[in-house]
Amino acid sequence: MNTRIFLLFTLFIGSGIISACKKEMDNDPELERIIVGRGPEDIFLDENRILVSCDERREGQPVFAEIVALDPATKKTTVLTRKSEPESLRFHPHGFYLQTVGGKKSLYIVNHYKDDAQLNSVLVYEVKGDELHFQREYRHKLLISPNEICALPNGSFYFTNDMGSDDMIYEQLFNKHGGSLVHCDASGNCKYVDEKLAFPNGLELKGQQLYMATTRNNALFRYDIQPDGSLTNKYKLSSVNGMDNLRWSGNKLIVAVHPDEIAFVKHSTNEKSHSPSWIYSIDSETGQSNLIYKNGGYEISGGSTGLIYNGYLYISQVYGDYLLKVKM
After folding, report:
1. 181/302 Cα distance (integer angstroms)
2. What is the per-residue pLDDT across 88-110, written as a single tens digit (0 to 9) for each?
3. pTM to 2 decimal places
4. CA nearest to 39, candidates 27, 26, 54, 49
């Protein structure tokens, strides 16, 4: 999740303090921390390994911006080597999505520049084992505040803008529904497909339906995808609030939730300040939700993605340097 959207929440949101008992992880066989690298915000299953999008987001910390592969069986991590990139490219990955396009395993990445004079972009790489081969970079004026991305087999993609401009103070105080959902075709022609959203966030795809989680809309939306990329039949599937990234487990959507936004703000500047992390399972047809993991931030703070694989729940986080592995 793009944490900039939270930095001014303290100006207008009342805090609901979430309490939880601390578990002694060293003695709990059902919990394990796996070090992967700083800022492991998003995770995605790639056959029998987990890809991790890492970027250190705290000021004053050493730069670490990489795509890391985790072997769940051995817990070995490998930084994927990037090939054939332009020398001018600045690499700061955020949300990402793996899709087979034209027979190639393609990784679509929301790229956040640290230099404010540069535009955000979407990067595409072909995944070949432990290498990422650069394919192209998409730039467009609608890449305003991109957060998450979802790619289709035809090479087109959707991304969420969590805000309507790069003026954070204005957006937080006067334009709370300034977020948008954008579709880009494979040639890079982009258009709005939904607007006036309160911090749209995670995206997922199944067949010809698109799912979008929002942080402050109290909504998980479902749409029908049309041939030109436009969306119809918008439907509010769930009213869970504070949602972050989405991933599939069968016909269930696994969504990470930030239940205490004030705690998340504090955690963004102080690693010792805990931010609760909840994970829900939501039925993609009925919208029925089930809380499958809950902690007050002692086990993992600011959880951003939940991924179920081989009987375990893996949870990523916006900050920190590890994934939490939880036995289901």
Report:
1. 24
2. 999 999 999 999 999 999 999 99
3. 0.90
4. 54
